[in-house]
Amino acid sequence: MDMHELTRSLQVKNGSKIVMMVADGLGGLPMTATGKTELEAANTPNLDRLAAAGVQGASIPVKPGIAPGSGPGHLGLFGYDPLQYQIGRGALEATGIGFELQPGDVAIRCNFCTLDGDGKITDRRAGRIPTEESAPIAISLRQVRIDGVEIFVEPVKEHRFVVVFRGEGLGGEVNDTDPQATGVPPLDPVARDAASERTAEVAKEFLRQAKQILKDQPQANFHTMRGFAAKPDLPTYKEVYGLRAAAIAVYPMYKGLARLVGMDVVGEAQTLQEQIDVLQANWDDYDFFFIHFKYTDSTGEDGNFDAKVQRTEDFDAILPQVEALGPEVLIVTGDHSTPAFLKSHSWHPVPTLLVSDCCRHDPHTTFSESTCITGGLGQFEAKYLMLLALSNAGRMGKYGA
Amino acid sequence: MDMHELTRSLQVKNGSKIVMMVADGLGGLPMTATGKTELEAANTPNLDRLAAAGVQGASIPVKPGIAPGSGPGHLGLFGYDPLQYQIGRGALEATGIGFELQPGDVAIRCNFCTLDGDGKITDRRAGRIPTEESAPIAISLRQVRIDGVEIFVEPVKEHRFVVVFRGEGLGGEVNDTDPQATGVPPLDPVARDAASERTAEVAKEFLRQAKQILKDQPQANFHTMRGFAAKPDLPTYKEVYGLRAAAIAVYPMYKGLARLVGMDVVGEAQTLQEQIDVLQANWDDYDFFFIHFKYTDSTGEDGNFDAKVQRTEDFDAILPQVEALGPEVLIVTGDHSTPAFLKSHSWHPVPTLLVSDCCRHDPHTTFSESTCITGGLGQFEAKYLMLLALSNAGRMGKYGA
Fold first, then answer.
1. ipTM of the complex
2. Fewer CB under 10 Å: which end of chain B, C or N?
3. Surface-to-core class of residue A148, CB atoms within 10 Å of its CB (0-12 exposed, 13-18 middle, 19+ buried)
4. What are phi and psi of A101, to 5 degrees?
5. What average pLDDT values come out for chain B (401 residues) when binned by 10 residues?
6. Do residue A345 and residue B53 have CB atoms under 8 angstroms apart?
7. Do A62 and B391 touch (CB under 8 A)?
8. Could you give the CA distance from residue A197 to residue A174 in angstroms, rounded to a whole number?
9. Considering the entire predicted model, what is its pTM?
């Protein structure tokens, strides 16, 4: 049975509030064999106090040994099996720049490229043309007109931009046109199923017009299309959990991921303190709040151990303001680990903390990688965290009589 | 999604080496309520040192409470879901005696039996005729000739031998001819699907000729056929993991299991020291090494606690030679537990140790049944061990963006 069949059938409504604080890339590694992790090195009096009051565990984002991207990492936390629900590359790229995909849309990642006189690719990234030059060129492609299809073109960065087709009967199963090599011409878009034939035709016409528009560009005189993807069909928080859910994030990617599961994106916060202000301002209007903190991940990606420690302490310092609102369930977790040692997302389980008045606390009085593995939540797949959140909030009834 | 779809799509190639040391039947039990297990009683300074440097956990071979045979035990360690992939009895028997099955082969376990004058079975095992008598009788069946089919007959032990049919269009779905009773004649081979009709015909003809050849034998004057099985269709290590894999084992069964997943069987080692010599000699030619140590299992099966302790110490003593080669990932595990107390394979989780420079070590400084349950790897299904090995070796990319 799908977990959402359960959560749908067992929904209980009450006035409880659930706050999920996601410190992106929270888990880490020591830099030396005998060292501490970032979280262990950080001074985190609030997390430790919450650890004493609550229960902790080690969240496995996907499966043991799998390092997830932000998409599957967050889907797991939101309670959507990240192996069952997949967000195509184009849809994730559009989501990441804040484009609001609608059902039926097809999103495509595009790269400017350079063609020679024979139409063969000489540079698959058009010399990594700077964003300030490439953005106006991408915008010039908004001239393209195709009958029956609404077209969106959004610059991203350097040679990258996103195209979205909106219309009837557009499937997302179309092959990349990037041949992954130079000295050969780009490929034609080819549908992999009947439902995507129209998409392939539209893409072909788009490319035909784009070639005309771009023909005088010195570097970006054409573009490839990759990662065709329809909007993923994810059931909403409202439907599967009965929750009015709000997302408070700074970066477009996380706002976009939250929108995909039907959360309202609230506020315009640019700092963690502003995120908390938005939380306070919207407290009465929602049952569930997802608060995303980016910098534990970005400092980890940079390999900057000390900066990650500092950002962890910043995150810790804000927690009393969240506690003061009196949520029935407060969760602190991450979508994956990002050890500064590896400078990348990793597969290691993520320290995860849950505090409620009925959470059966464990003996731990600190919160870290080494304590969470023997915490009361054990090691568990992230997709189960929402079930724990709902039960601790009294929002899920008994299964079976 | 199948785990191998993931590992295929996320493969990263690098120069790292992974060594998986399998001490067969590694986990144990105390002989008395207050006693130690074999592993706890053994003096294992090297395992303890590795425990301090690495991370441990408890590997569940199949599912909690399931005691596996060698086949599913090893398939799990190799990363093949042992409930999804099954090795038919005939194929396992052939594999166990070192017969190299080819795609399309059908292997059959045969038992000599005794028929009375009316063709009814009086002894289903032909008096458990000793191997030195039965082997030549089995070999006499190599006279059987059937058009279009290559036939192999291999003695096993006592009344048991293996027959393999090799040819076109031979399915593996044929019923046993052993009626599981005396006083009745053997059954005819009957196909369970259309693709196996030819196999049933070939088996019938084999039995007809065998009856002639055996008719003057006093005990083994006929035989039954059981466990018809095609070569299992397992994807290879090369394909699913991108690994050049070598197996270094003494016993035919484990060489055979390794061959089924596409490992090269290297060397002719007869002792653990010789296995390490083979490892050293082949170090540059492979990415992954499976080293199988039998005696922690066989002493457990014998119920000989002290001998299992001794064999565990022998295993421990060899580890520095493996470490000296500098593998990026070193794993010590077992395919299942074989407690001397039970004299059999058991369902208990298997102490499992992983050492790499990014394994997030846990606080343990010894390696045992009692420490592994609170180790950093938690309790996990054996089929995930290869994912952890690949990630720790830097050989698996991120899932999703």
1. 0.90
2. N
3. exposed
4. -65, 145
5. 92 97 97 95 98 98 97 97 93 90 95 96 95 96 97 95 96 96 97 97 98 96 97 95 97 92 95 98 98 97 97 98 98 98 97 98 96 97 98 96 80
6. no
7. no
8. 8
9. 0.91
